[in-house]
Design brief:
The chain is an alpha+beta fold and 239 residues long. The protein has 5 helices and 13 strands.
C-alpha cells in the first residue's frame, strides 16, 4: 500500500509580491499557478508554482494527500494541497491552497476505499457488488497516510455486509467514519416474470363478452321494416 510519504515530491515555489485578480491572470499567462501557503501558526504567503508539477501530484496514487517538499528560496517546507480550483471549461488549474504540516502531528484526511478481488456472491450466486462507501475519513501521522484503504472481497456472499470496522488498518491510523457504516454488500435484482402466450390467450377467453344491445336493436328495426309491406296488402283486400 503506497503512502503519502513514499510519493514525496519537490515543488519549486516563488513569492508573489502583488495580489488581486489582475495579478493572478498575469501569473497564469506566465505559465505558473497562483497559490496561498498557510498553517503552522505562520502568516499566509502568496506564492506561484509550476502547474505541470502540481498536475502530476494530483494525478498520482496519493493525489492531494501527497506530502510535498515546497522549496521557497533557501527554505524547504513540508506541505499538502488542501484545495484547488480549475477552469470549468478548459480544466486548467486556476489557484491552489497549500498547508504547512508537521511530520510529528496527527492529520485528518480522506482516502478512497478499494475493493480487491471478485466476490463469491457475484461469481457464483449471480449477484451484483454494491459499494456504498467510496472514501473514508481517518486520522494519522503524515508518514502513515495511505493512498487507499484496500480490502479483499473475494469471500463475500449474499447477506454479508462489509463495514468500516472490517477495514484493515495499522500504525497510527484511526478511522473517524462511524465503524458501523456499511462499505459494500451483494445485491440481487428481482426478475419480472412475463405472462406466457397461452396464459394471455386463456385470460382473453375468460373475459366477458360485450353486450349485443346495439346489434339486437338493429335486428328489430329490420324486422319491423319487413312487416310493413304485409300490412299494406291486407288493407287492399278489405277495400
Amino acid at each position: 500500500m503506497a503512502t503519502a510519504a513514499t510519493a514525496n515530491n519537490t515543488v519549486q515555489a516563488e513569492i508573489r509580491e502583488a495580489k488581486g485578480k489582475n495579478h493572478a491572470r498575469r501569473v497564469r499567462k506566465g505559465g505558473r499557478v497562483p497559490a496561498t501557503l498557510y498553517g503552522a501558526g505562520q502568516p499566509p504567503v502568496s506564492i506561484s508554482v509550476d502547474p505541470k508539477q502540481i498536475g502530476m501530484i494530483l494525478h498520482s496514487a496519493t493525489g492531494h494527500n501527497t506530502i510535498i517538499d515546497l522549496q521557497l528560496g533557501s527554505d524547504s517546507t513540508k506541505t499538502m494541497i488542501v484545495d484547488w480550483q480549475r477552469d470549468p471549461i478548459k480544466g486548467a488549474l486556476l489557484h491552489l491552497d497549500m498547508k504547512r504540516i508537521a511530520m510529528d502531528k496527527m492529520l485528518t484526511v480522506k482516502v478512497p476505499i478499494l475493493l480487491l478481488g471478485e466476490a463469491i456472491g457475484v461469481k457464483l450466486e449471480g449477484g451484483i457488488m454494491e459499494q456504498v462507501l467510496r472514501e473514508i475519513e481517518l486520522e494519522c501521522l503524515p508518514n502513515d497516510i495511505p493512498a487507499s484503504v484496500d480490502i479483499d472481497i473475494s469471500q463475500l456472499v449474499h447477506g454479508q455486509v462489509i463495514r468500516v470496522k472490517d477495514l484493515p488498518h495499522g500504525g497510527t491510523l484511526r478511522f473517524l467514519t462511524d465503524e458501523e457504516s456499511p462499505v459494500a454488500h451483494i445485491v440481487h435484482i428481482k426478475e419480472v416474470v412475463e405472462a406466457a402466450p397461452a396464459e394471455v390467450a386463456a385470460d382473453a377467453a375468460a373475459a366477458p363478452a360485450e353486450p349485443e344491445v346495439i346489434k339486437k336493436g338493429k335486428q328489430e328495426t329490420e324486422e319491423g321494416a319487413a312487416e310493413k309491406p304485409e300490412k299494406s296488402e291486407k288493407s287492399k283486400e278489405k277495400k
